[in-house]
Amino acid sequence: MYRKIMVPVDLAHTDSLGNALQVAADLSNHYDAPIVYVGITTSLPGPVAHNPEAFTRKLNAFAEEQASRHGITGEARTYISHDPARDLDTTLMKAIKENGVDLVIMASHTPGMAEHLFASNAGYLAQHAPISVFVIRS
Amino acid sequence: MSDQSPPISLEDDQTPDGAAPSPEGEADIIETDYEIGQDNIQTNIGPFGLDIHNPVFLISGLSIVAFVFATLAFQNSLGPAFGALRTWLTGTFDWFFLSAANIFVILCIVLIVTPLGKVRLGGTEAEPEYSYSGWFAMLFAAGMGIGLMFYGVSEPITHYATSVAENAGTAESWAPLAGAPGNVAEAERLGMAATIFHWGLHPWAIYAVVALALALFAYNKGLPLTMRSVFYPVFGERIWGWTGHIIDTLAVLATLFGLATSLGFGASQAAAGLHFLFNWPDDTTVQVLLIMAITGMALTSVVAGLDAGVKRLSEINMVLAGLLLFFVLFTGPTASLISGFADNLIAYVEYLPALSNPVGRADDNFRQGWTAFYWAWWISWSPFVGMFIARVSRGRTVREFITCVLLIPSLVSVFWMTVFGGTAIEQVVNQSYQAVTDAELPLKLFVMLEQLPLHQISSFIGIVLVIVFFVTSSDSGSLVIDTITAGGKVEAPTPQRVFWATFEGLVAIALLLGGGLTALQAMAVSTGFPFTIVLLLACYAIIQGLMSEHQVVKEALAE
Description:
The structure holds two protein chains of two kinds.
Chain A: E1 5-9, H1 18-31, E2 35-41, H2 52-70, E3 74-80, H3 84-99, E4 103-108, H4 121-128, E5 132-137
Parallel strand pairs in A: 1-2, 1-4, 2-3, 4-5
Helix pairs in contact in A: 3-4
Chain B: E1 40-45, E2 48-53, H1 56-73, H2 75-92, H3 94-113, H4 132-143, H5 146-164, H6 184-199, H7 201-220, H8 232-235, H9 242-278, H10 284-304, H11 306-331, H12 334-356, H13 364-380, H14 382-391, H15 398-430, H16 435-438, H17 444-450, H18 455-485, H19 494-513, H20 516-558
Antiparallel strand pairs in B: 1-2
Helix pairs in contact in B: 1-9, 1-19, 2-13, 2-20, 3-7, 3-13, 3-15, 3-20, 4-11, 4-14, 5-6, 5-15, 6-12, 6-15, 7-13, 7-14, 7-15, 7-20, 9-10, 9-13, 9-18, 9-19, 9-20, 10-11, 10-18, 10-19, 11-18, 12-15, 13-20, 14-18, 17-18, 18-19, 19-20
């Protein structure tokens, strides 16, 4: 059914990803589809890492850890964004295209008033991506 | 199901072999336990998420709100007070502003010629993220923008007129240096030299120093992109405490008032232009409406983000400004403007030592009223321009960086001033067209354009340019203030940018109503003064930081 799954990861808030990671691993096992864990960073020092290289190392470690824990094939891809507060959606769209995935599984919060003004990232992807998007509410 | 989250340590930034991680290639990371965002408050106000630095956001936000209300409440009594404050500061500390600016220029030139210029921002292997054209468009739109429109015609013509006047050189005169009473040719040279002095090496050196300091400590040293990081070599770990809070708060306030001054200039010039062209009323109501409309446009741009909003608008600006520049060049006295470019450069070099001399001069009005005011104004919004340039300058070497931020923009300023000022002076001298001399400052540009063909179109482009420059200053300013007040985080939620963009507009409106441009200028100068001291310390930090960086690179090469 699905050949390759993409899971966007926010390394600063990995604790809120639990459900999405589990669902992704289950589907990965079920369809025998590898997972691409996608992380987005800026070239500036941030809370997660001081530079893109350190960020990439952390994301790779995260992907390896997920793969061995769930017994799946997982790889990591780092994307650099100039202005992640605004470019996140387009960067994720780019990642979908470049990695040839056919399913996105991502965590999202419960939508509220703010979503009328600023769409959530998951909401944006579900609306604009040409492939299936599975939004996991925390 | 948080127990399923992987055991990934965010504090631990070490590579498997225990060595500190480097950016791309070699760089000298500063080891600190400070974690970016550790002092931030992440909360929700109503439906909006916030991620703000405590206490920098609260102090600067509350003082700005209080300032807006106080200015509006006491608007009639504050005007003279603001005027007196500006005169006192520029009159008492003119030598200080002038000396500081000279130090910045000298530091930049030293960095170009010494081996320290070889250090690359972001590590030895870092690659530039923006092309030269995109980079240049953004730094020019942020750095001068509205000022070039406002003063391009008015400043050369004013200096020329005061220099050639019979009273030049006396205490009442506003002429630069001793002026050139009755000597038209020399007054023209002096007028251009004095203008270029204010728009050439000195302002760009101020920006370059701030930008270089920020870029170095963020990209090479791994500290957050905020003013306090620059002072690590001076204050050490104390920058994460109140020392740093004060520096960052000062940077925010200086940026806000510096921006508001530009916005005030922009609004008064756009209103004057609309009055001139379409006979709209030119009063504070129109100016306030303009600020509101333009702040609305800035909001749209700031919500669109750095690449989709700010960068695109800056590029549109460059094209429009280029069109206007070449239009004036070809419809004006083309041949004399082209030869004037070289002549003005020579005049600039010739008068530079006298104009930049901080002591023992008799031209008090000029030195205090023009030069010291300009230096304070550039310095007050240098955190903004500097931070913005820093953010888009990763991957350049220090030498490349300073050449591009100091020399090229200075040359463009010389060319701009030559074309606009030269055309206006030519109209006065050879065509006896006195209207430019007599017009109000914000109007001079349009009065000059009226003498050229197609003036309806070119004046309209002029107004559009003022407005778009206004938008780019306001939106990039909000990005910068938002980053500082989020403790160096660039991914803070968008509603915070909306807050700052809105308050920049409100500060400009409050100050325009509560004392006009004088109030704006006074606030810019008063925040510029403490920040000058901050910048002098930053010079020391830059040299310190670059030397250790250079050392690491040299050792790596030797291995």
